[in-house]
Specification:
The chain is built from three helices and six strands, in the order ββαβαβαββ. By secondary structure, the protein is of the alpha/beta class. It has a six-stranded mixed β-sheet. α2 links the parallel β3 and β4. The radius of gyration is 19 Å and the shape is elongated. Bound molecules: zinc ion (ZN).
Length: about 160
Amino acid sequence: MKCTISKQYQFDAAHALTNLPYDSPCKRLHGHTYTVTVYVTGEIDLSKIETAVSEDQFMLIDYNVLDKIVKPYIENMDHALLVNLDMNTSLVDFYKNQDELKYKIVTLAYPPTAEMIAYVLATNIADNLRVLKLKDHIKLNSVKVKVQETPKTSAEVVQII
Ligand SMILES: [Zn+2]
């Protein structure tokens, strides 16, 4: 049986796409309440379940297990300024010089667009899912991460497991 499970997470963060080559409000420092939906797709081989001992045999992945993987990445970005140091150096300098502010700066390897936040999350979650010890009748195929920046805009990235 092929199936997909999903779970939604949320975090608040600030970013600024300071180097866009055209005029845009996205260049200014601003924040979003990001909604992240993680989809895990795989297969439950029902023929391999000889005796049903517990309900978790019929789960692709327990939501608690998914939480343990996903939440640290979500919490790391929560109430932070997301930057790519190559492109946001002056912003980081400005922020760090505001002594009275308690800053939390999270440096991504890429500019903090919804696409790249989804990519970073999907890559990290896939890495964790690949090393997860699964029951013999469970196979995970892919993870999709959808990052919703506003009610109207989102980006999705799929990683094969
Ligand atoms: Zn934005």
